[in-house]
Amino acid sequence: MKAWQIVSDGGIDALHLADIPTPEPGPGEVRARLAASSLNYRDLMTVKDPGGRNLPYPRVPNSDGAGTITAVGAGVTGWREGDQVASCFFRAWSDGVITQAAMDSALGGALDGVLSEEVILSADGVVAMPKGYSAAEAATLPCAALTAWHALFEVNPIKAGDRVLLLGTGGVSIFALQFAVAAGAEVFITSSADDKLARAKAMGAHHLINYKTTPDWDQAVQALTAGVGVDVTVEVGGPGTVSRSVEATRVGGTVGMIGVLSQGDFNPARVMRKSIHLQGIYVGSRRMFEDMNRAIEHHAIKPVLDQQFAFDAAPAAFHAMQSQQHFGKIVLQV
Questions:
Q1: What is the DSSP letter of 144?
Q2: Which residue of 65, 88, 214, 257 has the fewest CB atoms within a 10 Å radius of its CB?
Q3: What is the per-residue DSSP string for 315-331?
Protein backbone atom coordinates (compact mmCIF):
# COMPACT_ATOMS: atom_id res chain seq x y z
CA MET A 1 0.00 0.00 0.00
CA LYS A 2 0.99 3.65 -0.33
CA ALA A 3 1.51 6.14 2.49
CA TRP A 4 2.79 9.69 2.63
CA GLN A 5 5.70 10.09 5.04
CA ILE A 6 7.67 12.92 6.60
CA VAL A 7 11.27 11.85 6.03
CA SER A 8 13.15 15.09 6.72
CA ASP A 9 12.78 18.69 7.80
CA GLY A 10 12.51 19.77 4.15
CA GLY A 11 8.89 20.85 4.43
CA ILE A 12 5.93 20.22 2.16
CA ASP A 13 7.84 19.37 -1.00
CA ALA A 14 9.99 16.83 0.86
CA LEU A 15 6.98 14.63 1.67
CA HIS A 16 7.64 11.11 0.38
CA LEU A 17 5.07 8.75 -1.11
CA ALA A 18 6.25 5.33 0.06
CA ASP A 19 5.24 1.75 -0.64
CA ILE A 20 4.91 -0.05 2.70
CA PRO A 21 3.44 -3.40 3.75
CA THR A 22 -0.27 -3.55 4.46
CA PRO A 23 -0.54 -3.77 8.26
CA GLU A 24 -2.45 -6.35 10.27
CA PRO A 25 -4.49 -5.37 13.35
CA GLY A 26 -3.38 -6.65 16.73
CA PRO A 27 -5.59 -7.34 19.74
CA GLY A 28 -8.00 -4.46 20.37
CA GLU A 29 -7.31 -2.93 16.95
CA VAL A 30 -9.05 -2.55 13.61
CA ARG A 31 -7.72 -1.92 10.13
CA ALA A 32 -9.52 0.61 7.95
CA ARG A 33 -9.28 1.28 4.22
CA LEU A 34 -9.24 5.06 4.10
CA ALA A 35 -11.35 6.92 1.57
CA ALA A 36 -10.55 10.49 2.68
CA SER A 37 -8.31 12.52 4.97
CA SER A 38 -8.73 16.20 5.85
CA LEU A 39 -6.02 18.73 6.68
CA ASN A 40 -5.68 20.80 9.82
CA TYR A 41 -3.27 23.62 10.58
CA ARG A 42 -1.57 21.31 13.06
CA ASP A 43 -0.85 18.85 10.22
CA LEU A 44 0.73 21.63 8.17
CA MET A 45 2.93 22.70 11.07
CA THR A 46 3.98 19.08 11.67
CA VAL A 47 5.06 18.71 8.05
CA LYS A 48 6.88 22.06 8.06
CA ASP A 49 8.66 21.62 11.40
CA PRO A 50 8.95 17.95 12.41
CA GLY A 51 12.20 18.68 14.23
CA GLY A 52 10.47 21.16 16.51
CA ARG A 53 8.15 18.34 17.56
CA ASN A 54 10.99 15.81 17.94
CA LEU A 55 9.34 13.43 15.50
CA PRO A 56 11.19 10.31 14.37
CA TYR A 57 11.49 9.63 10.63
CA PRO A 58 9.60 8.37 8.83
CA ARG A 59 6.31 9.65 10.27
CA VAL A 60 2.92 9.46 8.52
CA PRO A 61 1.11 12.82 8.99
CA ASN A 62 -2.56 13.75 9.50
CA SER A 63 -4.96 12.89 12.30
CA ASP A 64 -8.27 12.95 10.41
CA GLY A 65 -9.53 10.16 8.19
CA ALA A 66 -12.61 8.16 7.32
CA GLY A 67 -13.18 4.88 5.56
CA THR A 68 -14.24 1.26 5.90
CA ILE A 69 -13.08 -1.37 8.40
CA THR A 70 -11.35 -4.19 6.50
CA ALA A 71 -10.09 -6.34 9.38
CA VAL A 72 -10.77 -6.73 13.10
CA GLY A 73 -8.20 -7.82 15.69
CA ALA A 74 -8.63 -10.30 18.49
CA GLY A 75 -10.92 -9.30 21.34
CA VAL A 76 -12.66 -6.52 19.44
CA THR A 77 -16.40 -6.23 19.94
CA GLY A 78 -18.80 -3.69 18.46
CA TRP A 79 -17.01 -3.40 15.10
CA ARG A 80 -16.99 -5.64 12.05
CA GLU A 81 -15.67 -5.59 8.52
CA GLY A 82 -17.60 -3.16 6.34
CA ASP A 83 -18.40 -0.64 9.10
CA GLN A 84 -17.97 2.99 8.05
CA VAL A 85 -15.85 4.86 10.59
CA ALA A 86 -13.87 8.01 11.27
CA SER A 87 -10.63 8.13 13.24
CA CYS A 88 -10.42 9.73 16.65
CA PHE A 89 -7.64 12.31 17.02
CA PHE A 90 -6.44 10.51 20.15
CA ARG A 91 -6.00 6.75 20.07
CA ALA A 92 -6.44 6.56 23.86
CA TRP A 93 -8.92 9.17 25.15
CA SER A 94 -12.32 7.58 25.52
CA ASP A 95 -13.79 9.93 28.15
CA GLY A 96 -13.01 11.97 31.24
CA VAL A 97 -10.33 14.60 31.62
CA ILE A 98 -7.37 14.59 29.27
CA THR A 99 -4.21 12.89 30.54
CA GLN A 100 -0.60 12.72 29.45
CA ALA A 101 -1.25 9.20 28.19
CA ALA A 102 -4.04 10.52 25.98
CA MET A 103 -1.85 13.32 24.65
CA ASP A 104 0.86 10.79 23.86
CA SER A 105 -1.61 8.92 21.64
CA ALA A 106 -2.28 11.72 19.14
CA LEU A 107 -2.31 10.53 15.53
CA GLY A 108 -0.01 12.23 13.06
CA GLY A 109 2.34 13.42 15.78
CA ALA A 110 3.24 11.19 18.70
CA LEU A 111 2.04 8.26 16.57
CA ASP A 112 1.77 7.65 12.84
CA GLY A 113 -1.21 9.36 11.28
CA VAL A 114 -3.72 8.42 8.63
CA LEU A 115 -2.37 9.78 5.33
CA SER A 116 -2.13 6.27 3.91
CA GLU A 117 -4.33 3.86 2.03
CA GLU A 118 -4.89 1.59 5.05
CA VAL A 119 -4.37 2.32 8.73
CA ILE A 120 -4.37 0.49 12.03
CA LEU A 121 -6.53 2.17 14.67
CA SER A 122 -7.55 1.33 18.20
CA ALA A 123 -11.03 -0.15 18.37
CA ASP A 124 -11.68 2.51 21.02
CA GLY A 125 -10.25 5.17 18.72
CA VAL A 126 -12.87 5.15 15.98
CA VAL A 127 -16.49 6.30 15.77
CA ALA A 128 -19.26 5.55 13.32
CA MET A 129 -19.70 8.09 10.54
CA PRO A 130 -22.79 10.27 10.96
CA LYS A 131 -25.75 8.97 8.94
CA GLY A 132 -25.84 10.45 5.46
CA TYR A 133 -22.21 11.55 5.52
CA SER A 134 -19.74 10.78 2.76
CA ALA A 135 -16.22 9.73 3.71
CA ALA A 136 -14.94 13.17 2.65
CA GLU A 137 -17.42 14.82 5.00
CA ALA A 138 -16.72 12.44 7.89
CA ALA A 139 -12.97 13.00 7.50
CA THR A 140 -13.41 16.66 8.46
CA LEU A 141 -14.76 15.87 11.93
CA PRO A 142 -12.03 14.35 14.18
CA CYS A 143 -10.03 17.52 14.88
CA ALA A 144 -11.63 20.78 13.68
CA ALA A 145 -15.26 19.91 14.35
CA LEU A 146 -14.60 18.25 17.70
CA THR A 147 -12.41 21.14 18.82
CA ALA A 148 -15.23 23.57 18.06
CA TRP A 149 -17.75 21.34 19.84
CA HIS A 150 -15.51 21.06 22.91
CA ALA A 151 -15.08 24.84 23.10
CA LEU A 152 -18.82 25.53 22.87
CA PHE A 153 -20.45 22.68 24.78
CA GLU A 154 -17.98 21.03 27.16
CA VAL A 155 -16.41 23.88 29.17
CA ASN A 156 -19.30 26.26 29.88
CA PRO A 157 -22.01 25.02 27.50
CA ILE A 158 -23.65 27.72 25.41
CA LYS A 159 -27.42 28.05 25.26
CA ALA A 160 -29.91 29.87 23.06
CA GLY A 161 -29.38 33.61 23.18
CA ASP A 162 -25.73 33.46 24.26
CA ARG A 163 -23.22 35.55 22.35
CA VAL A 164 -20.33 33.75 20.67
CA LEU A 165 -17.26 35.32 19.02
CA LEU A 166 -15.37 33.42 16.32
CA LEU A 167 -12.03 34.40 14.82
CA GLY A 168 -11.51 33.81 11.11
CA THR A 169 -13.09 31.32 8.73
CA GLY A 170 -10.88 28.24 9.00
CA GLY A 171 -12.13 24.78 9.83
CA VAL A 172 -12.65 25.23 13.59
CA SER A 173 -14.39 28.59 13.24
CA ILE A 174 -16.76 27.47 10.50
CA PHE A 175 -17.78 24.38 12.46
CA ALA A 176 -18.23 26.58 15.53
CA LEU A 177 -20.44 28.89 13.44
CA GLN A 178 -22.64 25.97 12.40
CA PHE A 179 -22.90 24.58 15.95
CA ALA A 180 -23.57 27.99 17.52
CA VAL A 181 -26.29 28.83 15.00
CA ALA A 182 -27.92 25.44 15.60
CA ALA A 183 -27.89 26.18 19.35
CA GLY A 184 -29.62 29.54 18.84
CA ALA A 185 -26.62 31.69 19.76
CA GLU A 186 -25.90 35.21 18.52
CA VAL A 187 -22.71 34.89 16.48
CA PHE A 188 -19.96 37.47 15.92
CA ILE A 189 -17.25 36.56 13.40
CA THR A 190 -14.07 38.20 12.13
CA SER A 191 -12.18 37.88 8.85
CA SER A 192 -9.82 39.89 6.67
CA ALA A 193 -11.98 39.25 3.59
CA ASP A 194 -15.44 40.69 3.00
CA ASP A 195 -16.40 37.85 0.66
CA LYS A 196 -15.72 35.34 3.44
CA LEU A 197 -17.77 37.43 5.86
CA ALA A 198 -20.61 37.41 3.35
CA ARG A 199 -20.48 33.62 3.23
CA ALA A 200 -20.50 33.49 7.02
CA LYS A 201 -23.56 35.74 7.07
CA ALA A 202 -25.34 33.41 4.65
CA MET A 203 -24.62 30.59 7.13
CA GLY A 204 -26.26 32.48 9.98
CA ALA A 205 -23.62 34.81 11.47
CA HIS A 206 -25.22 37.94 12.92
CA HIS A 207 -22.31 40.39 13.24
CA LEU A 208 -19.44 40.66 10.75
CA ILE A 209 -16.13 42.39 11.51
CA ASN A 210 -13.30 42.83 9.01
CA TYR A 211 -10.20 42.93 11.19
CA LYS A 212 -8.15 44.57 8.44
CA THR A 213 -10.42 47.59 8.21
CA THR A 214 -11.33 47.38 11.92
CA PRO A 215 -8.08 46.42 13.69
CA ASP A 216 -9.63 47.22 17.09
CA TRP A 217 -12.16 44.45 16.57
CA ASP A 218 -12.44 43.81 20.30
CA GLN A 219 -13.76 47.34 20.74
CA ALA A 220 -16.19 46.76 17.87
CA VAL A 221 -17.54 43.72 19.72
CA GLN A 222 -17.87 45.77 22.89
CA ALA A 223 -19.79 48.44 20.99
CA LEU A 224 -22.12 45.88 19.43
CA THR A 225 -22.91 44.45 22.89
CA ALA A 226 -23.41 47.82 24.63
CA GLY A 227 -20.13 47.39 26.50
CA VAL A 228 -20.92 43.95 27.91
CA GLY A 229 -18.96 41.59 25.65
CA VAL A 230 -19.67 38.09 24.40
CA ASP A 231 -20.26 35.03 26.55
CA VAL A 232 -17.80 32.74 24.76
CA THR A 233 -14.88 33.38 22.43
CA VAL A 234 -13.40 30.58 20.34
CA GLU A 235 -9.78 31.79 20.28
CA VAL A 236 -7.81 30.33 17.38
CA GLY A 237 -5.26 33.12 16.87
CA GLY A 238 -2.96 32.57 19.81
CA PRO A 239 -0.64 35.09 21.49
CA GLY A 240 -1.29 37.76 18.89
CA THR A 241 -5.06 37.83 19.42
CA VAL A 242 -5.81 36.46 22.87
CA SER A 243 -5.58 39.87 24.59
CA ARG A 244 -8.25 41.26 22.28
CA SER A 245 -10.34 38.11 22.76
CA VAL A 246 -10.27 38.67 26.52
CA GLU A 247 -11.30 42.30 26.02
CA ALA A 248 -14.18 41.23 23.77
CA THR A 249 -15.47 38.70 26.33
CA ARG A 250 -17.80 39.65 29.17
CA VAL A 251 -16.86 39.59 32.83
CA GLY A 252 -17.07 35.96 33.92
CA GLY A 253 -17.14 34.77 30.30
CA THR A 254 -15.14 31.99 28.66
CA VAL A 255 -12.27 32.05 26.20
CA GLY A 256 -11.52 28.68 24.64
CA MET A 257 -7.79 28.80 23.79
CA ILE A 258 -7.15 26.69 20.71
CA GLY A 259 -4.78 28.10 18.11
CA VAL A 260 -1.26 29.42 17.80
CA LEU A 261 -1.58 31.16 14.44
CA SER A 262 -0.09 34.52 15.45
CA GLN A 263 2.71 35.89 17.59
CA GLY A 264 2.50 38.53 20.29
CA ASP A 265 2.67 39.30 23.98
CA PHE A 266 -0.07 38.43 26.43
CA ASN A 267 -0.63 40.12 29.78
CA PRO A 268 -2.82 37.84 31.93
CA ALA A 269 -3.87 40.66 34.28
CA ARG A 270 -7.15 41.24 32.42
CA VAL A 271 -8.04 37.57 32.74
CA MET A 272 -7.92 37.97 36.50
CA ARG A 273 -9.66 41.34 36.60
CA LYS A 274 -12.53 40.14 34.42
CA SER A 275 -12.71 36.67 36.05
CA ILE A 276 -12.36 35.12 32.59
CA HIS A 277 -12.45 31.34 32.26
CA LEU A 278 -9.42 30.81 29.99
CA GLN A 279 -9.49 27.17 28.99
CA GLY A 280 -7.02 25.32 26.80
CA ILE A 281 -8.83 23.15 24.27
CA TYR A 282 -6.99 20.18 22.75
CA VAL A 283 -9.52 18.48 20.47
CA GLY A 284 -11.67 16.08 22.55
CA SER A 285 -12.50 12.56 23.67
CA ARG A 286 -14.33 9.78 21.88
CA ARG A 287 -17.37 10.39 24.07
CA MET A 288 -17.45 14.05 22.98
CA PHE A 289 -17.13 12.89 19.35
CA GLU A 290 -20.15 10.62 19.71
CA ASP A 291 -22.17 13.39 21.41
CA MET A 292 -21.24 15.76 18.59
CA ASN A 293 -22.25 13.26 15.92
CA ARG A 294 -25.70 12.88 17.47
CA ALA A 295 -26.14 16.67 17.30
CA ILE A 296 -24.85 16.70 13.72
CA GLU A 297 -27.42 14.11 12.71
CA HIS A 298 -30.25 15.84 14.60
CA HIS A 299 -29.57 19.24 13.02
CA ALA A 300 -28.52 17.84 9.61
CA ILE A 301 -25.25 19.79 9.76
CA LYS A 302 -22.89 19.23 6.83
CA PRO A 303 -19.28 20.44 6.75
CA VAL A 304 -18.11 23.12 4.35
CA LEU A 305 -15.64 21.53 1.94
CA ASP A 306 -13.40 24.15 0.36
CA GLN A 307 -11.18 22.06 -1.92
CA GLN A 308 -10.61 18.37 -2.58
CA PHE A 309 -7.37 16.85 -3.87
CA ALA A 310 -6.34 13.43 -5.13
CA PHE A 311 -4.20 11.33 -2.77
CA ASP A 312 -1.17 11.66 -5.05
CA ALA A 313 -1.50 15.47 -4.85
CA ALA A 314 -1.00 15.70 -1.08
CA PRO A 315 1.76 18.34 -1.33
CA ALA A 316 -0.58 20.58 -3.34
CA ALA A 317 -3.20 20.24 -0.61
CA PHE A 318 -0.69 21.31 2.04
CA HIS A 319 0.31 24.29 -0.10
CA ALA A 320 -3.37 25.24 -0.35
CA MET A 321 -3.62 25.09 3.45
CA GLN A 322 -0.50 27.23 3.76
CA SER A 323 -1.98 29.92 1.47
CA GLN A 324 -4.77 30.52 4.05
CA GLN A 325 -7.28 31.24 1.30
CA HIS A 326 -9.60 28.41 2.23
CA PHE A 327 -13.06 28.71 3.78
CA GLY A 328 -13.88 25.54 5.68
CA LYS A 329 -11.97 22.30 5.10
CA ILE A 330 -9.42 20.92 2.63
CA VAL A 331 -9.79 17.20 1.93
CA LEU A 332 -7.68 14.53 0.26
CA GLN A 333 -9.46 11.67 -1.52
CA VAL A 334 -7.56 8.45 -0.80
A1: I
A2: 214
A3: HHHHHHHHHT--SSEEE
Q: Which residues pair with 186 in a beta bridge?
A: 163
**How far, in Å, CA of 63 to CA of 210, rounded?**
31
Domains of the chain: 2-142+284-333 (3.90.180.10), 156-280 (3.40.50.720)
Mean pLDDT of the chain: 96
Q: Alpha-carbon distance 119 to 123, whole Å?
A: 12
Is the CB of residue 104 less than 8 Å from the CB of residue 110? yes
Let me know the angle formed at the C-alpha of 201 by 277 and 289, rounded to the nearest 5 degrees: 50
Reference 92, options 55, 64, 124; nearest CA is: 124
Q: Summarize pLDDT for 71-109 with one digit per residue, the tens.
A: 999 999 999 999 999 999 999 999 999 999 999 999 999
Mean pLDDT, to the nearest integer, of 252-281?
Answer: 86
Percent of the chain's residues with pLDDT above 70? 99
CB 212 within 8 A of CB 220: no
Within 28-170, where are the H helices?
41-48, 100-103, 135-138, 146-153
Instruction: Report which of 170, 166, 65 is spatially closest to residue 125, judged by C-alpha positions.
Output: 65
Each residue's pLDDT tens digit, 180-230: 999 999 999 999 999 999 999 999 999 999 999 999 999 999 999 999 999
Sign of CA dihedral 318, 322, 323, 324: positive
Separation between Cα atoms, residue 134 and residue 129, nearest integer Å: 8
pLDDT confidence bin for 262, thresholds 50/70/90:
low
> Of 115, 152, 145, 128, whose CA–CA distance to 15 is shortest?
115
**Phi and psi for 180 in degrees, rounded to 5?**
-65, -40
Confidence of residue 269 (pLDDT cuts 50, 70, 90): confident
Please give the model's pTM, rounded to 2 decimal places.
0.95
Q: Is the pLDDT of residue 121 over 80?
A: yes
Cross-strand partners of 120: 31
Coil vs helix vs strand at 30 = strand
Query: Which residues have C-beta within 8 Å of that of residue 325, sequence separation ≥ 6?
Result: none
